Fold:
Amino acid sequence: MLKRETIWWGALIVGLLGVVGYGIYQVFSQEDQPSLPEFHFLTDSGELISAQDLRGRISVVGFFFSCCQASCPKICQAMQELQRQLRNTDARLVLISVDPETDRPERLREVAKSLGANPRRWWFLTTTDSDSERLFTWIEEAFGPATRPKRLSWYYAAPRGWDIAHSNRLFLLDRRGRLRDSELVVRLEGEGSPWFEVDEEAVARLAQKVRRLDSVGGIPVRWLPTLNVGLNATSLVLLLAGFVAIKMRRVFWHRSLMLAAATVSALFLLSYLYYHWQVGHTRYPGSGWDRMVYLVVLMSHVVLAAALAILVPLVLWFALLQRWEVHRRLARLTWPIWIYVCASGIAVYVMLYVLNPQLLPF
Structure:
């Protein structure tokens, strides 16, 4: 008969493995929806960016042009309200001009200033070459055929400000640049009316969807890098304490501390995988010797962390079976690797986020 204590610890180990396995399965079994097709824009500050630069943060994207007399003022009003409602998130607001010939960066700067746009949170984009047809094709590919703008002057002599028809929806993109939802935030005041109004309920729904994407279990995703380094540091302390405990022959404390370290490391793995599934890969900005140091530390961290996914359950399993000689031999190999993985994880955080705070998704 197995002892009740052996059964309890065995169930705990199997539970930890199950949690980690389920987390890995959920991350890698998600349908990989296509992200935005490639395109290049100019921001209102004149900076050249690509469509892929919209990745890494939740984005709310809409279309307008500066001299519009129809729905655009109301779209801007809706974006102003979103800027207010989403001030405690890391969401980015993006307005793309469908009149790039007129809306050059200097003109967009004037619009941004008049709307009180926070430049860290609200982007105004135009094309690099004033070619509206290429832009219209990109919009159709990225957001669907119904979103393709139309130049009404091709059909009749529409006055300036009423000559480009475009979508009155705002589109929600996740951190991987995938289209998640949309809301029709501007509508006609009434049947036959040429005037528009903001649908406040649609704006509130969109804000709620952003807040849901922004958190997991009530924890904002932007906090996860800091949470992850905290979990790494906690594991490191527990491992050191567990080593001291076994050297002092405090077997109960050693066992408790090592199981706690395994639990914290499992939570770290789940949090790490979820964060990178949401945000994707964070590219180190340097290009000199510091980048080489970062890549060496990162690669060794990743390879040894993968080895730990096998070694740690084995060490715990042999302890459960009371095969102490095998447990000790394997633990002498596993413990320093585990210490290095925790320490190098902290080093990666410092090199990536402490030395480059602009990379933090705030």
In short: The mean pLDDT is 85. The domain at 40-213 is CATH 3.40.30.10 (Glutaredoxin). Residues 230 and 346 are 9 Å apart (CA to CA).
